Amino acid sequence: MTKTDEIAQLKRATERLRSWWTDDALPLWQQAAFDPEGGYFEDLDLKGKPRPQENRRVRVQPRQAYVFAHAGRLGWCKNAQTLSTHGFDYLLDQGTGKASFDTQQFSGFAHRLYPDGRVLDPAPDTYDHAFVLLACAWRIKAFNDTRSQSVAKAVLTFLDTALGEADGSFREGVPASLPRRQNPHMHLFEAFMALYDATGDEQYGQRAKKLFDLFNTHFWDGTHRVVREFFTADWQVDPRKGDLVEPGHMMEWCGLLDQYNRLFKEDIEETTTHLFESAENIGRDDTSVFLVDQVHLSDSRGGKTTRRTWVQTEYIKACLVRARRGHEGMAAQAEDLIHRFMETYLTTDVSGGYIDQFDASGVAISHTMPTSTLYHLMSLVAEAVATAEQL
Fold first, then answer.
1. Sign of the C-alpha dihedral computed for residues 140, 108, 376 and 81 taken in this order
2. Contact 134, 148 (CB under 8 A)
3. Do 380 and 317 form a contact (C-beta atoms < 8 A)?
């Protein structure tokens, strides 16, 4: 097959995926997950119905605000601003107890809410705040939303004063806990780049650069060619959980480092190649050709041999990044994975629904469809369309 043929087939696969997203998924989720009393439900059942009795993670609200802002930016959703604002308003009202974002007194968002919006767990979590910043960035991009600029500044002040460290990192939350994790920093890296891209404000660019340095000095283990997940207070690999590796996060870093290269012209080619190849080597299930959820470095059969949806979205995105960067065979691999993904994870009894997780033998084991995964699906479809347009 010629390279021209590979690109043509990838474009057809991309159009199939985009059509599912805009024609089936967005209509389903903007209706079924939408709570008319405020915000978005935590998940849907396998029949596509909401489960209003479930407690809510606060992070779901900014993720949905991001999803509809990004969809609106691309012209994929007519009422995108209303839908994005629905989640954003609920986040600001219920997640903070209606705190002001115009003062320096903001003390962070709660972590979990009861179904009626009352605070269940008030402890601020750094990971959650990364998605608030990401939502702000995309609401600025899509709607030129000045309120999102104010919220981003208040959140950043809170992170700096309550959780910030001199090396540009952030503690896990309030109160601080161990082990320290790379995952919140990965999403803060994503959010700072998005804010820099949306506003041109150099402070966000500098923060992204500090987290890039943190990736190189602590998260990226060049000896084993993996991203380490868990650390002690002084950034040593955690003695209890440090052996655990997530191939999906390694693929996610491939995409984020590519964004960093586009913004700051930093050479990331060698690292992303090692990330991609190592994630496949340690995490690829030969039967399904998808990635498993977790791997223990000391025992490749350990970890979680289940396979979640979000992991595959990041795998496909990494293939798309490598195709765009000219790597041989990557367009064909991305095209093949998109079709396989649609015929397994996205083939359900509910139009626009998805299967969240399979076990090692390929049996669907999830009982719900978490709303939070829409964030990963949105970014996958956007990456696929952008790549198809550039090739």
1. negative
2. no
3. yes
Two tokens at 82? 């209303």
The string of pLDDT tens digits covering residues 320-359 is: 999 999 999 999 999 999 999 999 999 999 999 999 999 9
Report how far apart, in Å, the C-alpha atoms of 159 and of each of 104, 151, 183, 187, 388 are. Answer: 12, 12, 16, 14, 37
pTM: 0.98
Q: Which two tokens stand for residue 377?
A: 């699906």
Predicted confidence (pLDDT) per residue in 121-153, tens digit? 999 999 999 999 999 999 999 999 999 999 999
Q: How many helices (H) and strands (E) does the chain have?
A: 13, 13
Helix axes 60-73, 374-390, angle to 10 degrees: 30
Beta bridge partners of 220: 227
Structure tokens at 68: 């509809």
List the domains of the chain with CATH numbers: 58-241 (1.50.10.10)
CA 72 to each of CA 79, 144, 372: distance values in angstroms, whole numbers, following the listed order: 8, 12, 18
118-124: long-range contacts at Cβ-Cβ below 8 A with a sequence spacing of 24 or more?
118/94, 119/94, 120/55, 123/173, 123/174, 123/175, 124/158, 124/162, 124/163, 124/173, 124/174
Burial of 284 (0-12, 13-18, 19+ CB in 10 A): middle
